[in-house]
Amino acid sequence: MGNKLKETILAGGNGLGTFFSAGDMSMMECLGYTGLDFVIIDCEHGPFDTMDQMDMIRAAESVGLTPIVRIADVSHKEIQRALDAGAQGLVVPCLRTMDEIKKMVDLAKYPPLGNRGFIKGRGAGFGNMDWASGSVAEFMANSNDRVLLLPQCETVECLDIIEDVAKVDGVDGIFIGPFDLSISLGIPGDFESPMFVEALDRIVNAFKAEGKMVFAYVNTPEEAIDRFAKGYDGVTVNLNFNVMVSAYKSLVRAIRK
User: Is 233 in contact with 15 (CB distance < 8 Å)?
Assistant: First the structure.
């Protein structure tokens, strides 16, 4: 398969990651020595262009992190460049309709699931990786299996159709964006609201009923532990620049107190 995060989850484990929203290859390499399982390279809010994205994927691979990319939107350019560069998963934001969900699958998966443009590019070792060295049909099947396709539930419109989203072939799981979802629900940042808790339960139940994965963003270790206890398969804890600033603040306070 070649996707360590997916293999871990299918074996009964879970994945711990973070968002990579600022930094260079050296910072990415540093994250590989922390015990994290994966990173989400943020090309929605982050500053990365195509070459930057590819370099961050390379750096993650070099230290054993599974590289996932959050793209900016459902478009051929966004999806094709990330997968060709070697992204082993996509988080796709701002979804509201089944047409967008189906377009996402069509662009990200090879036949028979979709119609992704064919190439044995950098992400496949230019056709030289073991999983990519077979026939065209074998390559397409292996690529489809390898890539985690995770629509992001962060709108009321996506929540309203979540059971249908979970049933779509080619959708491997869901990624819950709590901040934008709470804003869309009209309760910005109120994560204790019964309405928000009910929304989370509905999303989890829909995807678990289909045997698919559930990922979410969390702010704290305590939230991560709670999500894992509730059966989530993966969480991303905070953003790399937030964690760095917090660590240095703690260091400076300890020195200057």
Answer: yes
